[in-house]
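Sat 14:20. Reprocessing the chain from the morning session after the first attempt stalled halfway. Input below, unchanged.
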Amino acid sequence: MIRSDSALVDRDELAAELETIATHTDKSKLRGAVLARLKDVMRKGRQRAEQDLLAGGKGSVCARRLSDMVDELIGAIFHLAVRHVYPAQNPSSAERMALVAVGGYGRSMLAPGSDIDLLFLLPYKQTPWGESVVEFVLYMLWDLGLKVGHATRNVDECIRLSGGDMTIRTAILEARFLWGDEKLFAQLTQRFDEQVVKNTGPAFIAAKLAERDERHRRQGASRYVVEPNVKEGKGGLRDLHTLFWIAKYFYRVRSGDALVEAGVFSRSELALFRKSEEFLWSVRCHLHFLTGRAEERLSFDLQREMAVRLGYTSHPGLKDVERFMKHYFLVAKDVGDLTLIFCAALEEEHAKATPGLNRFFGFAPRRRVKKIPGSTDFVVDHDRINMAKPDVFERDPVNLIRLFHLADKHNLAFHPDLMKAATRSLKRIDGKLREDPTANKLFLELLASHNQPEIVLRRMNEAGVLGRFVPDFGKVVAMMQFNMYHHYTVDEHLIRSIGVLASIERGERAQDHPLANSLIPNIQDRVVLYVAMLLHDIAKGRPEDHSIGGARVARKLGPRLGLSPAQTETVAWLVENHLVMSMVAQSRDLGDRKTIQDFAAVVQSLERLKMLLILTIADISAVGPGVWNAWKGQLLRTLYYETEPLLTGGHSQISRDKRVAAARAELAQALENWPAAEREAYLERHYPAYWLRVDLPRKIAHAELLRAADAEGRTLATSVAVRAFEGVTEITVFAPDHPRLLSLIAGACTAAGGNIVDAQIFTTGDGRALDTIVLQRELESDEEELRRGKKVSTLIEDALSGTVALPEAIAKKAKPRAKIKAFTVKTQILIDNSWSNQFTVIEASGLDRPGLLFDLTRSISDLNLNIASAHVATFGERAVDVFYVTDLMGRKVTNAAREANIRRRLQQAFEGEAAAEKTSVRRTG
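Finished this time. Tokens:
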């Protein structure tokens, strides 16, 4: 074995030390003495490896040195076993053994926390001597703290098992001789090559590609998830391993240079392979050293420290951690390019695949080349678009855009030779091509295609064409946002949002988005919507607000794409205001008339309202799994339906008194089976705000609840309703009114594990409170969710009646979220009297933490404020809680000193300076 001068273990020195120990130590103490020395050697070796890595050393060098160190440790243990502990006096032909490294260890690469995969290779069946040696070696390695995967097999068993098990076959493919009988190892490799590998290349390729696809599916099917798995994720080390396994198996090579000689890689592609591998090994080794375990996922709580270890610094608009993660995703993209081109070429040559343009490869027998109508530069090569001649991009650079337009138009996949040529021709995308009217027309048609533009745009991005043709898009390629809200990089999010928009237009999401589905066929200019969708986050990572910066990009790019001035201005408006509808819907009181009037003043036209709704839905849906839910959809629909009449001259002209009277009459008709006197008495119990902010079904349910409570003489009553379509569960609480009521309800919900997303608070004319708490749904079955809701309502009743100690119940139930500790979010307390005609609006935003809503509402109660409604939104680690309040006399808060006191107290509550030390509870919103 070749050793570098920087080896972590001096073989000769260690061998001499162990020989001295073996010679001069009592046999009963020999094992312990050797183990102590090897532990010291391993500890010092790992320390040195980490120090060199932190000093700027390469990850691949670190991995090789750690592998070499383990080689020496295993060799020392093996030689101790066969020479001193279990020496064979007259060894038979069966008493031979070879220690073989397999798997990742077989590649001579070990991360600090990696498993050690060993094969104890025998000539025939196991012997008592062999059993003793294997047991001694394994127990010594385990006592050293190493994780060892092992198998003891003879040569025949290895050949037989690898014939039917791809995992075993792959392990032996990477087998490397360590110690023992080298002739035995040579026998294994020769028979494996002749009896297993020969003529089975296509089967192995198919198995490895299927294994890769399943691994990608488990890891989230995207290389752009913001907490990537460095080893198993898409674009990670395992993808490079898969590529090399296939090349090694099919082309029978054992080095990267041999791959170039075999024509698999060009020199530049091999250089890219090694550069990507180097970066990923550095990240993986740092990750293992940092966590002290075999951690493969770059979770949020590790990313910042990893960025510091790797030497990244902050730049304007991008944090150090965001620059590190952008580099990571660019490397993952390179890995994706290498594996996709290589594996597609193999499928092309050996698996006879003929996929259509979708996410999965299909198979068909026909194989032919035919012309594409209207094009002489491209052909259909067994259902894949390919070049008719090698010089298509040199002769006409517009073809770099045309090829994707044709692929979309004719539903074609991409030939690997074509993608290689496109990637190598990126320098031809210059200022002249960007201004070319034909190129821009083709791109605009592709972007707004009625087919599946998401798929083609993603391939366009992966080839590097999209970022070169739209340079502002190129700036956000592989850009991650260091927060828990966004699940993908910015470029991936933008492309996914195009996919969501297209699926809404195709009518595929009618159940989730019924309003958007009904509106989109009537949009006057769908192209404007698609351009705005592509550009809405394109200015992320800049010092200025990305909505304003994005509008500036839109005004510059619109004319280039061929949009009229009016179209360009609409795109710019949509980009600049793409967050407004979501913010208003989730954090404002939609029953407050001023909210709707202010929003309508921003939107100004019904057509803009329609487009903004559809864009908002697609944007939220493309953020990541689980971010969109039916409750958000209901809020957006409510905002739309409330705003639409103002923009079309509807009921906004009707006086408030008339609308209250109409609502009272509507309920009176619904309660016509009640005795007249009882009905009239009930109608007098509610103030005007109630009549305008509650829909008829809920008014009827409230009436029945209060009637039953009065009949039974109860001062406290609750009811539970599951709203399946909205994805929420409503708990209505009828109780004596007092300032701490909402705080107690919030605390009870926290203790019960309920996640509050909204709250409406009303007071009846006889001094009772009628509060509706909206919880996020957790269980799939309506029956199970109803039972959960009833458990929460029972705990609320217990808390309000004083039969449960709330702080203790909260502390016992809730668990803090460790990931939040990785983030810093500035706390902001805004107090505004212009957002409502009746209430002072308090918006508290900052870092989410356990028990936040409980502490905020408790502080507001301590400040002698009445809460009329609460609106709770969480964007990953950032919480935005909005309260509509009055003083105890029902007036707005206008005193400057009192406003300052509110800010101070809520800042303390937000930061948990008092309550968080006493209880560790989960936030309820």
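Confidence is low (pLDDT under 50) at residues 351-366, 913-925.
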